[in-house]
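Write out this protein's structure.
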Amino acid sequence: MADETTFQATALRVAAAIRSKELSPVEVLDACLARVDAVNGSVNAVVWRNDEEARAAARAAADAVVHADPGELPPFHGVPIPIKDLTPVAGWPVTYGSWAAPGGPSEESALVVEAFRRAGFVLTARTNTPEFGPITAAENDRYGITRNPWDLDRTAGGSSGGAAAITAAGAFSVAHGNDGGGSIRIPASCCGLVGLKVSRGRIPSRTLPWEGGAVEGVLTHDVADSAAILDVTCGPDRGQWYNAPAPERPFLSEVGTDPGRLRIGLLDEPPLRLGYDPECATAAREAAAVLEKLGHRVEHVTYTIPDEFLDAFLKVVNSGLADYDNVDWDRAEPHIRANMAAARSVDSLDYVRSVFALQRFSRQLVGRWGSEFDVLLTPTMTIEPPRAGEILAAVHGGVATGAPALQVFQMAVLTSGFNVSGQPAISLPTHVTPAGLPVGVQLVAGPWEEAVLLRLASQLEAALPWADRRPPL
């Protein structure tokens, strides 16, 4: 177990070992920090550390194990978790991956951070992200390029790329992330992890960024951890404008439950005529074949994005820069300055029209679940992970030429629509290319149907297991 602590032991297993006194929270934290020391020079995923504060929290957690009844301890007591550098933690700096960020510590924590504390997690370090989070790779001018532990020449994805890379490299059993257009699922696919995007309003937030399309979550090694952590972070929250309906029972109880016979819609081609890399298509077909053997009915489907969607979505995303206070925008990277200029050019009536356009698209999209199929199956991305540094260079180059970065669309076209619709979706690392790169598949359930998603995801995990895989790093 001690060796697994620094590699792929799940958060549930680490928590159980702490509760049974097989391991102490101090031992677990020391193992995690030692692994960060060993690998971060290669992957560049952790950008800030609070070792002294984390060790104090681990010592307090160890003392509680000695004096408390095991049943009184919170479910993830003593388990370390890093927080993405877009999310406030009281007393910590938050830089948003940018030289433009304000100095000094945050005054209050995000609600998901407070939930992590209540669940017993030890908050440990910050992970890299693209500046202010809108692109698909954790690359920025302030901290540099986060690299994929499966192939250091490749990106770890984004925006939760630092979280994915350091978890896949074995330093943590779980890492915090958030997802506004694929930012948990994309790096999960790149790095061979499980990435669950929850329903709109499922995990409480002080505000609802990107019209509630941006949600909080985690990157994990298995489906059970994703379900169990959702149990300790989900709402409803009386103070939030919009809440997903409360679950009928704990999400963890759905893991291993028979999903019944479902209609699976297999997406043969991605929208916008982007096409699939061969290994991405293979991953989806492979998963579909397994699901058929498990008794589900697979049907071939198509999915289109109307012309007005992209323009409306970008207006909402760019306007999300209003969430950040005390920023020196003149010091931001070229693409962020361009995004801010674009946001300032949109009047309030145009913004509302864009939101209504997305709502119309969402209603049309959601209507297919339950009528044509029960769960949609796609590759998570249309391409394999691009070269490290390629995304940031393309985005910055596009500011000068006016051309959007093709790779961003190729990585996010299959994920972003479900942020708009608010549906739950999960990326699972079911496939590996001949070169050894993970390729994820995405399952998308109907509105608020995390239970269906977790049942099917755990069934596919049992049929196509990935727990024994290790990156060469």
